[in-house]
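hey so i finally got around to running the thing on that chain from the lab meeting. sorry it took forever, my laptop kept dying and i had to restart like 3 times. anyway pasting the input first so we r on the same page abt which one it is
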Amino acid sequence: MFPLWHIAASEANGLSGGLAVMWDPSWINAKAYKCFVGIFISVGFRGHSIPINTLNIYAPYKNRSHFWEKFFDSEIFDIDSLMTAGDLNITLSTEGRWGKCKQRESLSDKIRNEFLHRNLIDVVPSKMMPTWSNGRIEEAYIAKRIDWFIVHANVIDKMGMPFSTIQNVFISNHRPISLCCKESGFRSGYPFKFNRSCLQDPAFELEISKAWKDLSANGLATFRDKMSSLKKVAKAWKIKKRQSNRTTLQGIQKKLNDISILLKANSLPSSLKCRINELEREK
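ok and heres what got predicted. didnt touch it at all, straight out
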């Protein structure tokens, strides 16, 4: 189907578990490596200097705890600009389950906490629907969102927040998923304008620390939700700080005006009066 494309693949283990990654070398410069969790690819996009490291994985259905412990103990998360995609065979919340499978999974809570600790973000699709179904109906129906994308926060810093979609068509018992970046392309800096000088203000640090502790008390909040909430806190603090600075400046200006009037009312040397007039014109 794509004779000029490059491909990296790993063998299947039993009836499932095989992985394959393909890319167009005319647009993407990539090097692929096999690792214990899947296929790791270091990617460079044509026309962009930002490298992206992609990990395609297939998580097992059995012995999942052992797999995820080994996964999080590995050094893979030390790699910069990491994006992970694949069949993870687990859901993070009840919103990703349909049918008679609404019970809470302790492993999901553990994985969600690991993601939060490592600044990894689940790119939630705009329209939520299952990516896998057991193909049965009525009482026997079970469906889950077990195929998804995990993006490190520093990728979002460089490229902006990507968005994912779930295609409304089944291939075997899975739906395809896709990840897209904004059409404006890559960018550097932060997703919203942030004045780094705020970090030098103890009041700002105190405000953000308090907000983070309040958000962390809610174990169900995702990292993305927390960052969105912190952005609102930072914006509100910035507006309040600007208003406070304006009030302080007006107070100083009034005092200077009072001093100027007082000095003019008294006998002053002509040179000093000229200097006062110059300062008033400079205002």
